[in-house]
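Ops channel
N.P.: pipeline sanity check, posting one input/output pair.
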């Protein structure tokens, strides 16, 4: 049984969670409006990666 090409999406998802947490820490800064836009992109991309990882559950022999 081989790993799927998307086996590292959990690591990417963790990275986006870290970025999201960093954005929360910086939310009071003058860049908060740009960071809020960044947060929306992170949430969207993280959800997309999660969906791709869940969709690719087939195994190769």
């Amino acid at each position: 049984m081989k790993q799927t090409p998307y086996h590292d999406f959990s690591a990417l998802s963790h990275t986006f969670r870290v970025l999201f947490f960093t954005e929360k820490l910086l939310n009071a800064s003058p860049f908060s409006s740009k960071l809020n836009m960044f947060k929306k992109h992170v949430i969207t991309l993280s959800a997309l990666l999660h969906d791709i990882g869940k969709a690719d559950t087939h195994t190769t022999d």
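N.P.: looks fine end to end. The chain has two helices and no strands.
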